Amino acid sequence: MLRLSKALNKYNANIRGLSTLRTKTPNDTTVEVGQEIEGFVVKEIRPVADFQLTALRLEHQKSGADYLHIDRNDSNNVFSVAFRTTPKQSNGLPHILEHTTLCGSKKFPCRDPFFKMLNRSMANFMNAMTAPDYTFYPFCTENQSDYYNLMSVYLDAVFNPMLRESDFRQEGWRLEHKDVDDKNSPIEIKGVVYNEMKGVYSDNQQIYNEHFLNNILPSNTYGINSGGDPNVIPSLTHSDLVAFHHRYYHPSNSRFYSYGNFSLENHLKFLNDTFLKDCLADPSIKDETKVPNEKRWTTSKRAHIACREDPMVPKDKQSSLSIGTLWSDINNTQETFELAILSRLLLNGPNAKFYKTLIEPNIGTDFSAATGFTDQTRDTFFAVGLQGLNVSDFERVESIYEDTIKSVIKEGFDNRDIDNILHSVELSMRHQTSNFGLQLLYGTLPVWNHDGNILDSMCVSEKIDEFKKKLSNQPNYLQSLVDKYLLNNNHKLVMTMSPENNFEEFRKENEDKLLKEKLALLSDVDKENIYVQGLNLRKQQDATQDVTCLPSLSLDDLKKTTDSVPLIRKNISSTPVFIFPQPTNQVTYFRSLINTSHLSHDLKTLIPLFCNVVTRMGTKSMDFRQFDQLVRKSTGGLQVSQSIIDSPKNLFDMKESVILNSHCLDKNVDEMFDLWKQIFTQVTFEDENRFKTLLQEEASSLANSISGSGHMYAMLCATAGINPIDAQRETYGGLQYVSTMKKIAQIDDLLPILKKLEEIGTEILNKSTMKCSLTIVENNSMAVKGLEGFLNTIAGNWEQPNDYNKIDKLDNNAKCFHHVLPFSVNYCAKALPGVHYAHKHFAPLKVLCKYISSKYLLPTVREKNGAYGSGASLSMSGSIQMFSYRDPKPIETFEAFDGVCNWVNSKKITIEELNEAKLAIFQGIDHPVAPMSKGNALFFNDMDHQIRQEHRNQIMNVKVEDLLNVANLYFSNTNFSKALIGPANNDIHSETNWNVTNHEDL
User: Fold this and answer.
1) Which of 866, 872, 857 is nearest to 825 (CA)?
2) Does a structural domain hold residue 321?
3) Tens of pLDDT, residues 53-95
4) Which residues form the Peptidase M16C associated domain (predicted)?
5) What is the tally of structural domains in the chain?
6) Fewest CB atoms less than 10 Å from the CB: which of 174, 183, 222, 808?
7) Are 858 and 926 contained in the same domain?
8) Spatial CA neighbour of 859 closest among 112, 96, 108, 101
9) Are residues 878 and 920 part of one domain?
10) In what order do the strands lie in the sheet with 977-982?
11) How far is CA 286 from CA 40, 94, 247, in A?
12) Is the same domain home to 768 and 623?
């Protein structure tokens, strides 16, 4: 898939690199270039001072395997193994192989050890991912025993997988009877990846992105779909898969990555002794997989693709156009860095050149999906365009594109905008996250995959210095890049996309044609084999797996107490203030919670829109462009969001809130609070054209989000049927809100809406219902004074003794909702009433949801029915939720949801299974928390140390009989709600009274 990168944000770890040939790691071991360590030779060492890390590049002597270690005093250790996988067909081979390697290996022969390790580990991240030209398998954990457990499972999976044909058929594709037990039922194409990619091809934006990549880099591996085209996937054979693995999942084609404070020597010893010591190098593999530079075109090219109509978007505004040009070789890290800055100057924010000329005239609804600078491929490229266009506007957009480029070359860029981008880099370098090591891996792999200098790519401060030097010596340097890469670049693609009325019918015809072609080749013996294979696969899926071969942590490996967070409580200007002293690396974090329960209903429905625009409309003393420049100069942005917060102690008690969020370098704290002061005292909602632009962006973004997050929308829709708090959430953020924004975006006279937003501002932009928090380095008095100055200058007197309010229960009628949208797969959800966080049944219900997710829903809905994902959870609002993602069989999925209680009662739950479910819960509870986020549970959710410790104890003490008890109490409840998002389905409506919403009618 084409992933548009925010290059500078991606390099969170990019700071000044100081070259050296000798270093001491935090483990106090001296390492030198040329030194041999456990079969590896140290090739390069580079300390990166600003983040207190040392990068070491090593090579395995015998196999030629490449190794990058980041030695840093961080407890969240990361490991990954990656292979360069460059497919030549769109049959999804690397993607299906990624799935199939995780279905059992020689040392761990049970089916799906990867998913089973999710419940036997304290990993805070486990995944496997396929990019257009590489596949990688990363995980993160703080526990050293867990680290080596996972390392052994991952490495055996990639180097010694079973690659059984049955696993290929389950994960990739297969011919199978619709009813496996009935040989007279129709034969269908099934498979997890097959259905996943059908879901991807239901998303117009995904289709557009993929085709843009295929067309601008057509002559090598990027010209095909590495994830797999559903019409081509059934051409892949099991023998092709095995041969590809044998050739390319070889140590000579591998790149190993480790990060954190565990011993490098132990990593290397484990890897060498277990997998590499007897492996001989084969340099020809890297030659075969090497991606050449794209041959530059002599003339520009055009392409047009069709897509499905989108009922969430006006019919006359469903076309897209993008113009892209090929830019630098990714291995030229200095130029790539500079071009990333150029891209931001052209695109990001209201002062950006293309934003002014393309977005503000409201020709379309937003930038097109392919817009941005892509530095994930061997040749980087830049694209810009619009979605939400009428076809008649295509020529106009192309003309604006050309005029904008010429204008940029003539006028150049505002130095303030350049400085603001460089400020954002400095701030991001100091901004500490809990997954730093993982983000560094993501930023490093694209360059590393093409044999670039990965250590050099981390040294962004050096690149900034070089960039500044070029600007000083050549004031028109950026204009020269625009001239070279945009104006006089023949490798230029103009791609358009428009809906076709019969797109879905044509897709279905192609699917049916493919199936008929497959069936026509089958003999009677083949058909009998298909029936037998289906039965055998079902038998394997139903078989009890012996997981004793898999390593596991025990509950004894977990800490017994919840970490406490230092807190200083103050009242400043009569406003409650929480101060959390943390090592923030000279960054101040400000948050505020403003209660909005006193607003009228018609105003509450517009709060999400208010939050989206309030910091982007400008103020009485400066327009939105001037204000945006100041925001970027001094902060990491001013964020405002709407939130409903559930009481941990009482069901149906909630806080309706607006949350303010910002951070800045300590030296800029006064400027940050001055910006908030201007929002509170001077915000204006008078610029109707600006508002229309922001409204179109919001409506477009929401419409595009449904296909990728359909399970979230389905769960919210379902819980809204049984929980009054979630009914509010659906209004503010579910499909109802998407439809509301669609309607508002089509209103000609927006003044009444603006008047209501102004009224919201008058009601809530004061300190009457506000509480604040600061996360700062201890004794940072400047931040406290800055907050005090802000609070002293805004209106209001604090008057909120209790910020929770009770909401009335809904009636107990069962409700089922079907939102008809033109997808080729479905998103299903079922909701049941549960309990609040502090209730004695919350912990066993939470454990039970983990248990049924891994032991029942995963094998039933994913493995048997072919959905890409499924699970169960318990929300803070007290709703039990079950869901499926990209699901071809909604009827069977709802049957599985309805059968949970009977299934649990038919099972003999073992102590080992119970403890696995508890471990899975503690993965979430004990996940690493960045300094900036410590204290959030207390500040936002009123979860003090006592409540969290009691919850921990309750989970530890859950017994098998507790799971049976809550299963019968809650999963047998006849008060439930269901939601289905997907194509029309008359079969499902025959069983239950469904409320059907056809979104084409909205």
Assistant:
1) 866
2) no
3) 899 999 999 999 999 999 999 999 999 999 999 999 999 999 9
4) 497-744
5) 3
6) 808
7) yes
8) 112
9) yes
10) 869-874, 879-887, 826-833, 977-982, 815-820, 994-998
11) 19, 16, 11
12) yes
